[in-house]
TrEMBL record, chains A, B:
Keyword terms of this UniProt record: Decarboxylase, Lyase, Pyridoxal phosphate
InterPro entries: PyrdxlP-dep_de-COase (IPR002129), PyrdxlP-dep_Trfase (IPR015424), PyrdxlP-dep_Trfase_major (IPR015421), Pyridoxal-P_BS (IPR021115)
GO biological process: gamma-aminobutyric acid biosynthetic process
Homology family: Belongs to the group II decarboxylase family.
Gene: LOC118279909
Protein name: Glutamate decarboxylase isoform X2
N6-(pyridoxal phosphate)lysine sites (modified residues): K349
Assembly and oligomerization: Homodimer.
PROSITE patterns linked to this entry: DDC_GAD_HDC_YDC
GO cellular component, one term: cytoplasm
Entry's Gene Ontology molecular function annotations: glutamate decarboxylase activity; pyridoxal phosphate binding
Pfam families to which the protein is assigned, alphabetical: Pyridoxal_deC (PF00282)
Lineage: Eukaryota, Metazoa, Ecdysozoa, Arthropoda, Hexapoda
Names of the cofactor(s): pyridoxal 5'-phosphate
Domain of life: Eukaryota
Length: 540, 540
């Protein structure tokens, strides 16, 4: 060992001290260490950070880093199976417990950090492996990173001028999706949710068939427009009829079979019926992946009918579209989708992209501009230095449009197309596993039908109802069990599975596996936890 | 100085080394230091982080911390006046320079970090103090923090069940906003942008006046519905007429005065004209803060006419609504807003909330549910354990609805109502400063009108056009200067100011001050930079 000079040693000590300090500060910033931030950023107010003070970069970084701390802890909890999914409180109780009020005076940054913690404490962890409640589950980390960047970039998608990179990414992603549908060309847009995507399809169809409509309105059509959809469709289809002035009476529900699939012969019968009465059938919505049962309407047969009667065929694949990635599951479910005129497909559902990310695709190039352009001169001038065809604002019925592309694009880069395919196959495999496990326990569970997708429909049987013959009378009782058991799930906070009635049966459970977090163990937990919470339920 | 034992010294060295390592690691995590991350997280792929591996918490934190690094650097640049606003590239060039492609195979996390950097490098810095281009400018840090949390919470706003905290926050914020409009009661919703907010108002008006419309459609009305709006209104108003089946021919443009304000006598004349022809005037849109000129329609006089002819009065205050905070500027601009039936107000504009955040308010309790409910049984069951009045999904024409409230709520907590008032007064003060500075340089700038808001409309005069009399011929030349000068701004990347023509004049510049980052110095920079870039422009 060499000898240390006194000066050298002091200088060394100083370095040590600085590094220790740095280590502590930074450990706190990254949320990994116990040593908590010693600085006083928490006592500052909004006007001590950017952009209010030019020299406020350190405080700004520190404040945001502390917020990120809170978020990283939350993400950890979301993925921790020992954590509860929710801390349920009744609305009135929650309002009393939490200070949600807006004050005249600013609150300090430390209070905002507490606000963030509080919000997350009582928020439902939709990314938890035991959350089977909604079509959108899971918390994809890469998509999350994309959404954080989107927020920092804080731009609007209407012109290339202010969103150049994101506009080009949209073009790449949407073209890829159209190709997967089976189209070489066409038009697409991202919309704020599947309902608005379906609305875009409706508007494009109406414009395509009756271009005078845009200016002259409904009165320019001889006869009343009529649209068709199955009785299992998403309610937004009916909503189009109301919004667009048809009236919901002219949105005709086509009966479905016992698996929830539209019956093509019924469709044709109803089309004929309305033609005979002088109405104008012009739009058919086929669903690929219904909300409740996960059913797929027979696209080929529907396409034949649309062709025969010159109607626009829209496929609402908001839910089922993700299966286009899977060689194994795409057929026969989505066979014929390329014959559609338009397709809705929500990456925020089966693909796990963060909310919101919904797309709608059209077979016809330029149709969105033709249909929706209002030609606002102040945005879409033609004397720009770049080709204004890159501006998307005049294609849409929104003006401001949120950047929903980056989180999807980044996720796709990270997973690769093959990663999405593996994801789809895995989800389906898990749903098949769940079906098997349900069938193995016929005393406790009753499978309602063999699903085509990751929606599994079933009843849970508490002790009171086991061993009794299955009839309509028992179904009513099983329906009553659902609300009670769901209440127990919410109160215990350990599990969330949705339930609903449909037109054939009272309440039943519909679980969804669309999160990459779920494993066979979690499926087992779902069933055993339902049994733990529900076995002693007694219904009238 | 005490003597060191050899063991003690070694142990001390080990501590030093660890602290140095920690310091370096964490410095990198927080993006403040040069020492870069030594770990190999970058070589990992998506399936090495959560939720794909249970033990992946450290890698996940690290990946996200590195993304945050990139974002914090970007935020620093956004606020650095020495940084350019944009690195402009033509679309074709950008597509060649950047790899936007989606591949079959996954890319490693380090590539995703590079992707993030690249996206930000070519993205326009809309929060930069020299960005005067759009109604939405600025990057509010607290709102940004709110959006990051929103992404991590990744939920949907349709039910209290899955968004309890956020639903309650919506109630608090929207009630506060209604109170500021001047209503004690009512109904409100957040929508994806002002255009959809205006669509909600149109739908509510139609439903309120003609409730049979929802089911029976347009054919149930004797006579053709007609709506009115000024010729300066946002184009989304006209779009409602197209979307909803009226036809744009039945959206009547009311002439405005030279300041861009609707002329009430003209409105009344046109209403009478259409009534006389058997049409049904039912909806008037008044604009508070027009997009181009920032004009305020005279609300009291319009309200009188609406009352007289039993028409719904909507105020599109998407842009001007923020001035409701200001005791100094609220009147006379928004005097009479409380007489409206509905009001659109976008916090993502003047209030600086991150995109998107748009609200629409109604005087009538329960109107949204009455108007839009489709009663999807699978979501909005009435046998839930909490009062289903807290579920908002059936009030809206979307189904999935993004959480746009948290970023606004947190921002409001941070600024306080008084902070928003100071913000509004400051923005107006800066616009007044800009007007003064323009008037002080009549050789270089021509003020088009005294603005009512932060929109300043003016021409820039290159040397070629100075000292010549101002006439229509010169205006055409000044119009040509705009596109050329804007091109130079884009190429130099130092400044962005928008331009457009209107129906009275060719192209002119319209600058916007809506960012809290802007100071008097930045206003001076805007004008001097325009002169630097533009003085030698020559037009035909």
């Amino acid at each position: 060992m060499s000898k240390l000079s006194l000066d050298g040693f002091f200088s060394y000590c100083k370095q040590i001290a600085e590094h220790i300090q740095l280590g502590e500060r930074m450990a706190s910033l990254s949320g990994q260490g116990t040593p908590k931030l010693t600085s006083s950023v928490g006592n500052l107010y909004y006007d001590s950070i950017l952009p209010y003070r030019e020299d406020a970069q350190p405080q700004t970084r520190e404040f945001l880093a502390r917020v990120v701390d809170v978020l990283l802890d939350f993400i950890h909890q979301v993925n921790d199976r020992n954590e509860k999914i929710l801390e349920f409180r009744m609305p009135e109780e929650m309002s009393k417990m939490c200070d949600f009020q807006l004050h005249d005076e600013p609150l300090p940054l430390k209070q905002l950090l507490e606000d963030c913690k509080l919000a997350l404490k009582y928020q439902v962890k939709t990314g938890h492996p035991h959350f089977f409640n909604q079509l959108s589950c899971g918390l994809d980390i890469i998509s999350l990173a994309g959404e954080w960047l989107t927020a920092a970039a804080n731009t609007n998608m209407f012109t290339y001028e202010i969103a150049p990179v994101f506009i080009l990414m949209e073009n790449v992603v949407l073209e890829k999706m159209r190709n997967m549908i089976g189209w070489r060309t066409g038009d697409s847009i991202l919309a704020p949710g599947g309902s608005i995507s379906n609305l875009y399809a409706f508007l494009a169809a109406r414009h395509h068939k009756f271009p005078q409509y845009k200016e002259k309105g409904l009165s320019s059509i001889p006869g009343h427009l009529v649209m068709f959809t199955s009785d299992q469709c998403h309610y937004s289809v009916k909503s189009c009829a109301s919004v667009c002035g048809l009236g919901t009476d002219y949105c005709i529900c086509v009966p479905s079979d016992e698996r929830g699939r539209m019956i093509p012969t019924e469709l044709e019968r109803l089309v004929k019926y309305h033609k005979d009465r002088g109405n104008v059938p012009f739009f058919v919505n086929a669903t690929s992946g219904t909300t409740v049962l996960g059913a797929f309407d027979p696209l080929e047969e529907i396409a034949d009918i649309c062709q025969k009667y010159d109607m626009w065929m829209h496929v609402d694949a908001a839910w089922g579209g993700g299966l286009l990635f899977s060689k194994k599951y795409r057929h026969p479910r989505l066979t014929g989708v390329e014959r559609a005129d338009s397709v809705t497909w929500n990456p925020h559902k089966l693909m796990g992209t963060l909310l919101q990310c919904s797309t709608v695709h059209f077979k016809y190039e330029g149709i969105l501009l033709n249909c929706n352009a209002m030609s606002a001169e102040y945005l879409f001038m033609t004397d720009k230095i770049y080709d204004p065809k890159y501006d998307t604002g005049d294609k849409v019925i929104q003006c401001g449009r949120h950047n929903d592309i980056f989180k999807l694009w980044l996720q796709w880069r990270g997973k690769g197309t093959s990663g999405f395919e593996r994801h789809m196959d895995r989800l389906m495999e898990l749903a098949e596993y769940q079906v098997r496990r349900i069938k193995e326990q016929p005393d406790k569970f009753h499978l309602i039908l063999e699903p085509e997708m990751v929606n599994v429909s079933f009843w849970y049987l508490p002790k009171q109802l086991r061993g009794l013959p299955h009839d309509a009378h028992k179904e009513i009782k099983l329906g009553k069990v659902c609300a009670k058991l769901k209440g127990k799930m919410m109160q215990s906070g350990t599990l969330m599975v949705g339930y609903q009635p449909d037109d054939r049966r009272p309440n039943f459970f519909r679980s969804i596996i669309s999160s990459a977090a779920v494993t066979e163990k979690d499926v087992d937990f779902m069933l055993s936890e339902m049994d733990r919470l529900g076995q002693d339920i007694v219904v009238d």
